[in-house]
Write a structure and sequence with these properties.
This protein is of the alpha+beta class and about 375 residues long. It has three domains: about 5-120, Orthogonal Bundle (Butyryl-Coa Dehydrogenase, subunit A, domain 1), CATH 1.10.540; about 125-225, Butyryl-CoA Dehydrogenase, subunit A, domain 2, CATH 2.40.110; about 230-370, Up-down Bundle (Butyryl-CoA Dehydrogenase, subunit A, domain 3), CATH 1.20.140.10. About 50% of the residues lie in helices and about 15% in strands. It contains eleven helices and eight strands. It has helices spanning about 15-35, 40-50, 65-80, 80-105, 110-120, 125-130, 230-265, 270-295, 305-335, 345-350, 360-370, and strands spanning about 125, 135-140, 145-155, 160-170, 175-185, 190-195, 205-215, 220-225. β4 (about 160-170) and β5 (about 175-185) form a beta hairpin.
């Protein structure tokens, strides 16, 4: 591993870099899970390897890794440590959205991308918990806004540099308006709350971040939209973010599958075992196929209601299939999988997180149904 990650170029084999990192971080995954502690060593390794800036275009000082490569990197890291893969996915999807908007919409995201590359920044997202409604209050003051909010599920917050988030401004002309912005996690008024005690993904450091009167200048507001309604920005977020996030759950499922096969191949191949393994393989293939289509879509699809509906349906299919894969892995390995010495038990808990990202099952079914019936998706 080079001492200076800035020496990496677009010719870097980023998947090989990720594989080398994965071998190292796998050794600490169980300890962080048991301790409810953030994957500090893993993040230090990823930063030293230049992976946090790998997707930034070369012309902005980054590594030039492709979108598909970044999804594979997330998947391989998550196979070694689900918490590392998911937390890294949350940084990666913010960078990927900035890259996508710069390339496809000519959006002025160059400044953020240059900062990520030049300062090797770690970005934190609160978007999944805010979603269309957002949370928190933005008060207009001279030169900007004062933000008062408490943001949950802020993955990577223990070592994050910037939080990409939003708050609601009661605009006197247009009514409740969601403001999107990035704020320094070192700013006055930012407090970290050690709240992350969960069933799975225990090492993501997805703690609450409190913004108590944090000043955000007007220039830092990157988007405005009506509260609670779908907006072009959110269609773009959906298109770009969810293939990356669900790559983490595919990685978790892949690790459980591999562990289960290692155990099952040593057992007598009775018909029940064969069928259970067949069910696991079928579920894993379904996950792989659904995720594969998601990963391809940002290269050709345009943001909009139909594309969002498709992504959210595929997100549901991929997530459900990842959960089924790990359930069948647990059954195929049998009683051994009940012990924490195998990664299947941790994978079983980690993969449950696939249920909770937007859109969860019932809202996704509602969106699919309204689209099929030609109804307004905001209705």
């Amino acid at each position: 591993m080079p001492d200076d990650a800035t020496l990496r170029t677009a010719a870097t084999d980023w998947l090989a870099v990720a594989d080398a990192a994965a071998r190292e971080i796998a050794a600490e995954a169980a300890r962080h899970d048991e301790e409810d502690s953030f994957v500090t060593e893993a993040y230090a390794r990823l930063k030293a390897d230049g992976l946090f800036k790998a997707h930034v275009p070369v012309e902005f000082g980054g590594g030039g890794a492709s979108y598909a490569e970044m999804c594979q990197i997330v998947r391989r890291l998550a196979a070694a440590c689900g918490s590392t893969g998911l937390a890294f996915a949350m940084h990666t999807h913010i960078v990927a959205l900035a890259v996508w908007r710069w390339r496809h919409e000519g959006a002025p995201t160059e400044g953020l991308l240059k900062r990520v590359a030049g300062e090797n920044l770690v970005l934190v997202s609160s978007g999944g918990s805010d979603w269309l409604q957002s949370a928190g209050r933005a008060e207009k003051v001279e030169g900007g806004f004062r933000i008062t909010a408490r943001k949950v599920f802020s993955s990577g917050s223990p070592v994050g540099d910037l939080i990409s988030t939003s708050a609601v401004y009661d605009d006197p002309d247009t009514g409740p308006t969601v403001l999107h912005f990035a704020a320094s996690l070192k700013a006055d008024g930012v407090r970290m709350h050690d709240t992350w005690r969960t069933l799975g993904m225990r090492g993501t450091g997805s703690n609450d971040v409190e913004l108590d009167g944090v000043f955000v200048p007007d220039a830092a507001v990157s988007g405005r939209r009506p509260q609670g309604k779908w907006h072009p920005l959110f269609h773009a977020i959906t298109l770009v973010a969810f293939p990356i996030i669900y790559s983490a759950y595919a990685g978790v499922a892949e690790s459980a599958r591999a562990a289960a096969l290692e155990v099952a191949r040593k057992k007598p191949a009775d018909e029940g075992l064969v069928q259970t393994v067949g069910e696991m393989e079928t579920a894993f293939t379904a996950c792989d196929v659904a995720l594969g289509e998601m990963v391809r879509m940002p290269g050709s699809a345009r943001p909009g209601a139909e594309t969002t509906g498709r992504i959210m349906t595929l997100r549901q299919l991929a997530g459900q299939a990842a959960i089924r894969t790990v359930e069948r892995a647990l059954e195929a390995a049998g009683g051994q999988a009940f012990y924490r010495r195998l990664p299947i038990e941790r994978a079983f808990r980690d993969v449950q997180g696939a249920r909770f990202h937007p859109l969860q099952e019932k809202p996704q079914l509602r969106l699919a149904g309204r689209l099929a019936l030609g109804l307004d998706i905001d209705g």
